[in-house]
What does this fold into?
Amino acid sequence: MIEEQGRVLRVADGVAIIEAVRRSACGSCGAAGSCGTSLLDRFLGRRPLHLEVDNTLGVEVGDAVVVGVPEDALLRAAAAAYLGPLVGLIGGAIAGRHWPLPASTDGELASILGGLLGLVIALRLVAAYSRRLTANRRFRPVLLRRDRPLPIPVTFS
It folds into this structure.
């Protein structure tokens, strides 16, 4: 079980909406200032993640909590998100290479179009798989325990 800290935003009908701030390991890495991941993180910023969990602990709005996400759900989602589009792109390009378009003498255009088509199909399949994982209660995040209060973010304008 992968644990993440969060704060309860809303509670209704036995369900709690938790706001968890995504963390990265960039702070402990020696190349924190120069790698692509930290540059993207600084450019895009950190957006909070909202999780819907069953309110098994009777938490209230504002409570600090620890949420657990099953490891196999995370591994399945990561494999689908990274491998699915890659396999679709490469598979579509290979399939397109064997069915050249009449206007293309070497099949390069057909390979590009096949790759794009394979990528689009793979992205749709990954989205459908993601919806199926989300609907399966076995893969949903759960409330593990109340936590010490989180620091209140302060912004200066």
